[in-house]
Amino acid sequence: MKATTRHLPLRCILTLATVLGLGVALASPPAGAAETSATRDPARTGLYGAQDPTYDGVYRQGLTILALTDAGAEVDRSAIRWLRRQQCGNGRWTSFRSDLGTRCGPADSNATAVAVMALTALGRSAAPTRGLEWLVAHQQVGGGWEYSKGWGADANSTGLVVQALIARGVDPQTVTNGGSGLDFLASVQLGCSAAPDDRGALAYLSEDPLVANDYATAQATQALAGSALPVTAAAGSSDLPQLGCTKALVEPTPAATAAGFLGRRLQANGDLLPPAFGSAPDYGSTANAVLSLVAAGYGADQVESTMTALERDARQFVLGGRGNVRPAAAALLVLAERATNGHPRHVDGLNLVRLLKRSLTR
Question: Mean pLDDT over all residues of the chain?
Answer without folding.
Answer: 90
